[in-house]
Design goal:
Distance between the termini: 80 Å
CATH superfamily: Electron Transport, Fmn-binding Protein, Chain A
Structural class: alpha+beta
CATH class: Mainly Beta
Number of helices: 4
Number of strands: 12
Oligomer: single chain
Helix content: 10-25%
Strand order of the largest sheet: 3-2-6-9-10-5-4
Amino acid sequence: MQPPPAFDTRQFRNALGRFASGVTVVTTCYEGQTHGMTANAFVSVSLAPPLVLVSLDNRAFMHRILREAGRYGVSVLSEDQERLSNHFAGRTIEGLHIRFTDRQGMRLLEGAVAYFVVSVVDAHPAGDHTLYIGQVEHFEARDDRPLLFYSGKYQQLRPERAKPTPWPQDEFSLFSIGNIDPPIT
């Protein structure tokens, strides 16, 4: 199916970029080697059974090997892992030390805010991508700030706001704030 003639794919891509997403690295083991690729098209599908989905470009090497491997890992990156995201997006960074951790026989990126180990249960062609649905075999999560992607750039969560100062409990304190004149007696 082709887009309508007036359909501007650049504008469409820019509009899609207005949807903020987390950043993940999808990994798999193939012929004894670990392979990884940055992906932000990762979503939950079902809680019972626990299913997730990753969307991969049909031209990507990861597309071919994931189909053959039948399993994949997802590392949800923390805000300090931007360099890893760039590396696995194809912008090799010389001297970058990549540290993996092993869970259920799958190599995942150490320091991620969440890990998922997944077995492929279905693959659906969808235009120029394939949607790989997988059943979660194992997951972990830790409290940390995630790396985000919005409008073509990496982003971070805003710092948590301080709790508002509670209102004073007595009449004298209320008037001493200076916003209200004290009552005339």
